Amino acid sequence: MLPTLPSGRVQDVVRAPDHVLSVRGHRADPSDPQVVQLCADLVATMRVSPGCVGLAAPQIGVSTQAFCVDVSAHPKARTSHGLIVVVNAEVVEATRNEKGREGCMSVPELTGDVKRATLITVAGQLPGTGEDIDITTDAFEARALQHEIDHCAGLLFLDRVAGAHAIHARKVYRDPPAP
Amino acid sequence: MLRRPKWNNARVSQLAITVVGHDRPGIIARAAEILAASGMNLEDSSMTLLRGHFAMTLICAGESSTSEIESALQPLIDESLDVTVREVPVEVDKSSLGLPYLVTVHGADRLGIVAQLATVIAGAGGNITDLSTRLVGDLYVLIAEVDLPLEVSVEALRREISRVAAELGVDASLRPVERDDL
Prior knowledge:
- The structure holds 2 protein chains of 2 kinds.
- By secondary structure, chain A is an alpha+beta fold.
- Chain A is about 15% helix and about 30% strand.
- Chain A contains 2 helices and 6 strands.
- Chain A has helices at about 35-45, 140-150, and strands at about 55, 65-70, 85-100, 110-125, 130-140, 165-170.
- In chain A, strands 1, 2, 3, 4, 5 and 6 form a 6-stranded antiparallel β-sheet that branches.
- In chain A, a hairpin with a 6-residue loop joins strand 4 (about 110-125) and strand 5 (about 130-140).
- The model of chain A has no long low-confidence stretch (mean pLDDT about 95).
- Chain B is an alpha+beta fold.
- Chain B has 2 domains: about 10-90, 2-Layer Sandwich (Alpha-Beta Plaits), CATH 3.30.70.260; about 100-175, Alpha-Beta Plaits (2-Layer Sandwich), CATH 3.30.70.260.
- The N and C termini of chain B lie far apart (about 45 Å).
- The interface of A and B includes residues 15, 110 and 163 of A.
């Protein structure tokens, strides 16, 4: 499932309220070398960002339906497909909603409680070959995929929070002072 | 002889108390201790930090008067912490006849976001039952829970909210509150 990508360039991550995060991304031509490079850049940027398990093109300022996800090192993951890089993805089946707390590199100071399906099937295309793929997954990987597909549709987790008390300031835990 | 509980004879008042000021550990503990010692039952309360300031509002009920509680709470007050006490009538706890919706707004901060959107909601007869707003960096976020009368056209309200949001340059959505009754 992992396409061969050129080496990626680390890009700056865009933060809300940047307009690019609020508009639906254009459908991508998976064989376009620029799209393939964009995907490589997404992976490179995700890899250098601590704790980042997914990044969508609007988050690096490009209004295109492309993203990468890798939850393999995350303790909340159950099923993991390793590195996923996909364009023009959509959720085709979704069941079993559960609430979970989400953060986002584009909204670094807040987290939010968001209800998402915990069992989903996503259909999309691989960058480069354009091969159609289906991914069926659960739990944290399902949440990450839905979060990134939302980015490609111009939505943030803020658009899906469960209530007036469902947004929280992100806690920053500092090391205790040396004795 | 049957001793009737004092509660039945005495005049029970309901007091609204606000505590606002510099945050530090122990404010709630001290306030709750004073109220308990004064025989006031702490009923509904809400406390949060607003831009780092301690902010608590509560309703308590008991036989103590406003002035008695005011003086009991005096030790809590200093130059950085303000307390107000006032008696409030007992409100009938009316369960909502409307439909619960959630309004979410986010975008670049500017003057009047809450004012303009709350005016649109009020204009449709919507009642905001819970609201929180956050300003982080340039990003302003508003989440409001709203009861809409059954006769409201949700689509018309959604269009009006979108129109005002577009004028303000922010994103806004209106969607039903999801509830799972188990």
